[in-house]
Amino acid sequence: MSHAIRKLGGMLLTLVVASFVIFAAMFAAPGDPVTFLIGNPENMTPERIASVRAQYHLDEPMLVQYWHWATGALTGDFGQSFHYHQPVADILATRVPITLSLVGYAAVLLAVFGIGLGVLAAVRRGRAADTLVVGGTTLAASVPSFVVGIALVALFAVQVRWFPVSGAGSGFGGRLYSLTLPAVTLAVGALAIVSRVTRQSMIEQFSSEHVEAARATGLAERFIVRDHVLRGSWGPIITMVALVIASMIAGTVAVETVFGISGVGSLLVDAINTHDFPVVQAVLLFMVVAYMIVTTIVDLLLPVLDPRIGRKAVTA
User: Which Gene3D superfamilies match (predicted)?
Assistant: First the structure.
């Protein structure tokens, strides 16, 4: 119970600090928001400026402005977009499902191929397959995601025309089809991390006492790998997969821009270019909250996958 309370308190403190940093960064950004709100220089009268400042609480101290914004965010009110002149929450509601679909698709690819390649490298350690997996995934991770995306578009969308050049599609099948190349782009860079953690964790398990004992009983190697080596390796693997998935949300900025996807990542880029501060704040806060949710889910799942972790948490 004490572990759960400490965890919850740490999450709340992190959220408060992150939200304040996000707001303060926008507050310190160059340029006066009133200029973007009014737009036409001919309307920049003292009365109009004073009215806009009062409407958006811009005439109040920063801490008071943060309080208005934070309390509104708790109820889902992130203010009004400077550029779109719509509630920020409504804009996010149309963009978040697309981004979550992209991240979810990429997460499945990452988990299947990242863990699969790591298992292959661990089982074939010291052989050609091991060298090929380590070298190939390292090379893939060294290429920037936008370069991978452009290359995939040029080959599979323009040359052979298997996939669309841009867009997220509609319906489950259409979205799955349209997001294939973006999801591959998003997952490729993280394959090296997941596969290496899987490989290293399994190699350590191969030399453990319980694996040696299972091997001494004459158990087939495939059962040893499945029931003893891989099972004992799940903790570090799941943790790393979760951290990578959580960081993928920020990685959608480049991928969505390359593939012309109207998600949260491209919304952030547009908001920065148009100085749409409320949208920037809301998107950054969404990324922080999403990261915290993913890592919290992993903390809850790890004791189930590895009871030893649960016992450590109880005794802590």
Answer: MetI-like (1.10.3720.10)
Dihedral (CA of 89, 91, 96, 99) sign? negative
Q: Do 288 and 73 form a contact (C-beta atoms < 8 A)?
A: no
- Backbone phi and psi for residue 74, each to the nearest 5 degrees, phi listed first: -65, -30
Residue 91 binned pLDDT confidence (cut-offs 50, 70, 90): very high
Is there a single domain that holds both residue 100 and residue 54?
no
CB 244 within 8 A of CB 111: no
User: Under 8 Å CB-to-CB from 272, ≥6 apart: which residues?
Assistant: 280
Q: Which residue has the tokens 């995934």?
A: 137
In a domain, 84, yes or no: no
Cα(46)–Cα(59) distance, integer angstroms: 13
pTM value is 0.81
Work out the end-to-end distance of the chain between its first and last CA atoms, rounded to an integer number of angstroms: 10
Residues 122 and 48 in one domain: no
Both tokens of 46, joined, read 């003292």
Domain's final residue, options 74, 97, 112: 74
Query: What is the per-residue pLDDT across 259-303, written as a single tens digit (0 to 9) for each?
Result: 888 889 889 988 888 888 889 889 999 988 888 888 887 777 776
Q: What is the CATH number of the domain that holds 158?
A: 1.10.3720.10
**Residues 94, 60 share a domain:** no
Provide the residue range defining the domain that includes 285. Answer: 89-315
